[in-house]
Amino acid sequence: MSGTAPWWRSAVIYQVYIRSFADGNGDGVGDIAGIRSRLPYLKSLGIDAIWINPWYKSPMADHGYDVADYREIDPLFGTLAEAEQLIEEAHRHGIRVIPDIVPNHTSDRHAWFQTALAAGPGSPERERYIFRPGRGPDGAEPPNDWVSCFGGPAWTRLPDGDWYLHLFAPEQPDLNWEHPEVRAEFESVLRFWFSRGVDGFRIDVAHGLVKDPELPDLPPRPEPARLGPLVSRDPAREQPRQHVDHPHWDRDEVHDIYRAWRKVADEFPGDRSFVAEAWADTPERLAAYVRHDGLHTAFNFDFLMASWNAKDLRAVIDDSLAMLGAVGAPATWVLSNHDVVRHPSRYGRGAVKQWVANEPYRPEGPLDLELGTRRARAAALLMLALPGGAYIYQGEELGLPEVEDLPEAVLQDPIWERSGHSDRGRDGCRVPLPWTGHSAPFGFSPEDAAAAPWLPQPASWGKRSAAAQSGDETSMLELYRTALRLRRAHPALGDSSLTWLDAPTGVLTFRREPGFIAAVNLASTPYRLPDHTTVLLASGTVEGGLLAPDEAVWLAV
Ligand code: BGC
Description:
alpha/beta; Oligo-1,6-glucosidase, domain 2; Immunoglobulin-like; binds beta-D-glucopyranose
């Protein structure tokens, strides 16, 4: 890692899904006090920064992604003073802090939306959002055929006859980014938090802010190979991916907004940075977000969406590094987050159906969790050895699987209701963390907590708790700790480049300078490790110089 490169080019950033990380006040929901109490854990894990999911004042229709006031902390999570303390304490632990900013939509309880409702059709107050009359003789049909990402139409009609757009839940009206007040307000919100010491922002739905002003109907389906893996085992899909002109995703004009945001970040000292949640059709389109005058980094969802297949993964890695490298941006690898099925449960399934971004993906078929976990260990070593930065989703370091059997009565994700109970939504990856002990709440809440955790934890999670794994060299937690320690110390890891080495089909082997090799065996037979190497770290046990299937190793040359 170069000592002079900005921190975000190689940072390992830990995602704190605040509701489910640690509950300080015993109400069953994670909070800022909980995060503060676990800073020593994060320090010992060896991460560089935390990204915290939205903590702003919110009616919680989408667990905080419906913001009513961007300058207030929701009382469920704490106070503004506590947020300031957290930023300060995290910095003392050497950990940077990146909140989430939600610019595509506000809550329907946001003062602007409430004012717009009261002001009525045709009023200037409604221009901050996307209100339109309906189609059809009495305007009873929505203005176009757009669909909500959570299911159902993307439009809701008000009693006064106007319709408003919401790409997510009806409680999340989309803002009109053509309006100068919207632009000015968000720049002011960024300054508000930058001046409180935050080190950057994760930008929610960064690819959705700008809509085609004509609001045309969606392009006809099926779209050509849209957003699937770059190279698929299905030969019919082996074609270069193409950008599809879409009326509300990834429109070119969105970059003007981020050029202005970059200027705001640059007003502040200390390498403040942005990471975009942008789902783009092609690596070139993704790279457009991270040009030198735009954002700093963007999540690499192609990596997350790739199946456990050497060809797919290598294609994703090569294309990402090429496209991002061409604009001088680092890659940021990610395996899991609060919106997707946890990767041990993805990798533990034989059949992989095509994953289309911006659409729900629920793997099917029997689960072999032991296999999925073995692959997850190998995937961690792959991810952390690649050039650039990486994201770790809370609980990934504990090897937590998706909780697939949550009772229907406890499901809270709006997707469950909006899909007419056909999609269970994302609660299965959001179950509160197990910290210690043999029964719920496993240290997530204090012992005398007034309420149970907001989602029930599996009874078996005692063995997965941070305390149970701590000091056990065979545990996922110790694998992550060791990998992060080596990564921090090794001059070959972090930013810079890689060189692929010859390897049998199904094996990924690459070299990084000076003196480092990573090998991942995705084939079904053991792989003989290169000569003149010594094992620095292995995801399993390396015997007789052989790397077993679904295992990975870091080597010193
Ligand atoms: C966030 C989701 C959220 C949605 C709407 C996403 O991309 O990651 O959790 O539901 O944006 O804000």
